[in-house]
Automatic annotation (TrEMBL):
Pfam families: Glyco_trans_1_4. PANTHER family: SULFOQUINOVOSYL TRANSFERASE SQD2. This is Glycosyltransferase. It comes from the Bacteria. CDD domains: GT4_GT28_WabH-like. GO terms for molecular function: glycosyltransferase activity. It comes from Hymenobacter cellulosilyticus.
Length: 251
């Protein structure tokens, strides 16, 4: 039996509470020890599994997610609707792609945009690709901070007058990502984040949280980095955007 593990288990909400305790202490150790091999998608996830479940190291083999880089680049060149093309052509755009969910931490990106506006910078736009259970919460955060949001679900015309753009699920996210100034990953937990690698394949600068697991291995595999908060706030991410290496929208 071969088990493939795609996400950190230390921060999995499904293994909290009484039922979660049973899964973590009984079911998961039984499954892992019964498997012939366990295949995590990142090196840090491998070490986490070994440490958490006392697994033999030789039984846990890392295989990173793979990507069709040429296919991503080819699809990134496909055209967008005229109004969307104009938005990306006329404004610097920060972009993120992923399910609107707690572990993806998109509410922090709304705080990022708000913090950038307080820095006397030419404020960029923010585009979110994806949908999920936290849609209403993220939209509400926009309202709380006085940011105007355009939402594809409302079927209203897209103009350049908004601050935040919710594009929902897109079968081809690469045509959006390739036109952005910076791609952001603000997750609280990952495995080996595909969105980060896909943005890099599109040739777009990236800024990421140092969450468990994956971003550190992708962006700085041989460098020592200080420990950082698992769920950083908007101002700290905004600082990264401004300092990397120079805010692309001020060039």
């Amino acid at each position: 039996m071969l088990l493939c593990i795609h996400n950190s288990k230390r921060h999995d909400p499904n293994i909290r509470g009484a039922l979660g305790w049973l899964r973590r202490r009984v079911l998961m150790p039984f499954l892992y020890r019964s498997a012939n091999y366990i295949v995590p998608v990142s090196r840090d996830l491998r070490q986490e599994l070994i440490d958490t479940f006392a697994l033999p190291p030789e039984k846990v083999v890392t295989i990173n997610n793979f990507f069709d880089v040429e296919g991503i680049r080819r699809r990134s060149q496909e055209s967008l609707p005229a109004a969307t093309e104009a938005l990306f052509a006329n404004h610097p755009v920060l972009i993120t792609a992923g399910r609107l969910a707690r572990e993806k931490n998109q509410k922090a990106l709304i705080d990022v945009l708000h913090a950038l506006r307080a820095q006397d910078q030419t404020a960029p736009k923010l585009a979110l690709l994806g949908d999920g259970p936290l849609r209403a919460d993220v939209i509400q955060r926009c309202q709380e901070l006085g940011l105007r949001s355009w939402q594809v679900w409302d079927e209203q015309p897209l103009t350049e007058d908004f601050d935040v753009y919710f594009f929902g699920f897109q079968a081809n996210p690469f045509q959006y990502i390739a036109r952005a100034s910076v791609s952001l990953l603000c997750s609280a937990t990952e495995g080996f984040p595909m969105a980060l690698c896909e943005a890099m394949a599109c040739g777009v600068p990236v800024v990421s949280t140092d969450c468990p697991t994956g971003p550190r291995e992708i962006l700085a595999p041989k460098r020592w980095l200080p420990n950082t908060p698992r769920r950083p706030n908007g101002p700290s991410l905004a600082c990264c955007c401004l300092c990397w290496p120079k805010a692309p929208w001020t060039r």
